[in-house]
C-alpha cells in the first residue's frame, strides 16, 4: 500500500514571521496524527531556513516548489538540489500547472528537474492534470498520458509522488468530484503498470471535503494550496477521519 502524503503548497504566500506564526498552532494540532501519514510543507525559498531551524527533529517534512537540473551556473532566479538538501528539504513540487502556465515549464524541463531532484535524494511531487477545455473535449487521459510519458523518461518511480491536479479545480472552489478523482488516479496508476507510488489529488481541497476524498481507495493523499495556509484548517485536513 502506497504511503499517504498530505502536502501543503503555500505558493507565494507567507513571510518568515507568518511562517513562525503558523507553526505553533499547527504543531499542537498534529500531536495525535497517526504516524503513517507523511506531512509536508512546500514553502517559498525564503521560508525554508525558518522551517529547517524550527522543525529540527519534527515529523513535518520540508518541501520546496522548484529545483533546477544543473548543479550550479548562470541561471538567475533558479535554485539547485544541493541548496535545498543543505536546508533539510526532502520534497520538491515539480511541474505545477502554474509553472507550466506562467514560467514556460515543459514536459522536457519537468523531466530534467525530476531526475536532478532524485539524484540529490529529494522526492519530487510531479503535478499533472488537464484544463477545462481538455476535459470538455474528452482529452483528459490523452493529455495526462503525454505528461507522464514525456515527464517520466528515466525517472525512478520508487522515489516519486504524483499529484493529479485538474487545472479547472485549482483555486476555483470547483473541487473535482471525489469519485471522479479516484477514477482518474486509478487510471494513472494503471499507466504506471500498477506501481505502488503515492498519487495525490489536488484542487480546492477543503477541510470539509477531506474525509470523503481520503475515503477513496486510489487516493493516497492531497496537495493543498489555499487551505494549507490556515494552521487549524490544514491540521483538520491532516487529521482526516
Ligand atoms: O498545489 C496545490 C494546488 O494548486 C491546489 O491549490 P488550491 O488548493 O488552492 O486549489
From TrEMBL:
Per UniProt, the enzyme's principal EC class comes to isomerase
Swiss-Prot/TrEMBL catalytic activity:
D-glyceraldehyde 3-phosphate = dihydroxyacetone phosphate
- The transmembrane segments are none
Active site per database record: 96 (electrophile), 165 (proton acceptor)
Which InterPro entries does the record match to this protein? Aldolase_TIM, TIM_sf, TrioseP_Isoase_bac/euk, Triosephosphate_isomerase, Triosephosphate_isomerase_AS
Record-stated family: Belongs to the triosephosphate isomerase family.
This chain belongs to the protein called Triosephosphate isomerase
Which organism is this protein's natural source? Limnothrix redekei LRLZ20PSL1
- Gene (UniProt): tpiA
Amino acid at each position: 500500500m502506497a504511503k499517504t502524503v498530505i502536502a501543503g503548497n503555500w505558493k507565494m504566500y507567507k513571510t518568515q514571521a507568518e511562517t513562525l506564526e503558523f507553526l505553533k498552532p499547527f504543531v499542537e494540532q498534529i500531536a495525535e496524527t497517526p504516524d503513517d501519514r507523511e506531512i509536508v510543507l512546500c514553502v517559498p525559498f525564503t521560508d525554508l531556513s525558518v522551517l529547517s531551524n524550527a522543525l529540527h527533529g519534527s515529523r513535518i517534512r520540508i518541501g520546496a516548489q522548484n529545483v533546477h537540473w544543473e548543479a550550479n551556473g548562470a541561471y538567475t532566479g533558479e535554485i539547485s538540489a544541493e541548496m535545498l538538501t543543505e536546508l533539510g528539504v526532502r520534497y520538491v513540487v515539480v511541474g505545477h500547472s502554474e509553472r507550466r502556465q506562467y514560467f514556460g515549464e515543459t514536459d522536457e524541463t519537468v523531466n530534467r528537474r525530476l531526475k536532478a531532484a532524485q539524484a540529490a535524494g529529494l522526492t519530487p511531487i510531479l503535478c499533472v492534470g488537464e484544463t477545462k477545455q481538455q476535459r470538455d473535449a474528452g482529452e483528459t487521459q490523452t493529455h495526462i498520458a503525454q505528461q507522464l510519458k514525456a515527464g517520466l523518461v528515466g525517472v525512478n518511480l520508487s522515489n516519486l509522488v504524483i499529484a493529479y491536479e485538474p487545472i479547472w479545480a485549482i483555486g476555483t472552489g470547483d473541487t473535482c468530484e471525489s469519485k471522479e478523482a479516484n477514477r482518474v488516479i486509478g487510471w494513472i496508476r494503471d499507466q504506471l503498470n500498477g506501481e505502488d507510488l503515492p498519487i495525490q489529488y489536488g484542487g480546492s481541497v477543503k477541510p470539509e471535503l477531506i474525509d470523503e476524498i481520503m475515503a477513496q481507495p486510489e487516493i493516497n493523499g492531497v496537495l493543498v494550496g489555499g487551505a494549507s495556509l490556515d494552521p487549524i484548517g490544514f491540521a483538520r485536513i491532516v487529521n482526516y477521519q
